[in-house]
Amino acid sequence: MRLLVFPVSIELAFTMAIVSDHQHGTVTSFSNRRPTHYRTEVQLFSLLAKHEVEKYESMEFEAGGYKWKLVLYPNGNKSKGVKDHISLYLALMADTSSLPLGWEVCAVFRFFLLDQNKGKYLTVEDALEKEKCFHEKKLQWGFDQFFHLKQFNDTCNGYLVDDTCVFGAEVFVTKETSRGKGQCFSMITDGRSFKHVWKIENFSKVKEKSYDSEVFEAGGQKWKIILYPKGNTPGVDRLSLFLALAEITPASNVFAEYTMRILDQVNAKHTTFKTKHSFTASSPSRGWPYFVSSSDFYDSASGCLVKDVCLVEAEVTVLGIAKEL
Q1: Using CA atoms, how far apart are residues 22 and 125, in angstroms rounded to an integer?
Q2: CB 246 within 8 A of CB 215
Q3: Cβ pair 34, 9 in contact under 8 A
Q4: Model-level pTM?
């Protein structure tokens, strides 16, 4: 079996007849001219079925500044439950990494099938919605029931002659857009809990108003603990403790349940608080301004500070996360 691709030429169209197939949502007509953008000849078409070739994908061709290909199912697209018909689709060959966020390419297209007996092309296009929009989640459009196999195989109709047929396509890009910013938020059903212990040595020598832990990972996100030795509120004699996302983007949105503890190194009666919060660009941290009073913290009986060492634990479970669209 040989697949031959021919150069195309632009000629004036001559429409012989127009037929609407409302059942399949198509409009068909006959034209004297070749398809403007692409034409492919398939020889020994019957061998596709004999060798159980589910689909044939054409070489890439360019139209409207984009690359496309035809996707042909010679015995129907089984995944769509198609029987007794040829399925034919136009696919956009997009390098999504090079396109802007939310990209969309809208185009009007029609397919061609050569009637070799009359030397004319049958053209097929959508009857209801001519413009189709291609995007990351919808890279191909076409017809599940492009042509009935019984009519196609009948040599009197001229579409399959000497086991050879010719398909073609025209594609006219009508609009290129970027839909702007978008976000998909997804909850996590089996979120795992991660613990991180921050050991602060020489605590009495900490002079900064706030003190950040090393960055640690939990639930695929990077976090840090923020401690205010003398509180984050002026005039209040308490230690403040917060959990924060260490890496923030405008689209950041992480919903987490977390527990924070100052470990009691003497009695194991830890000072503990637990809550849930959506960490976003506008609210990247959340915690407790009044986690423990200074008098309790420095009381040797509390076990919060032993040999000038403090142990702070964060236990984090990510329950949901947003991603850019």
Answers
A1: 12
A2: yes
A3: yes
A4: 0.53
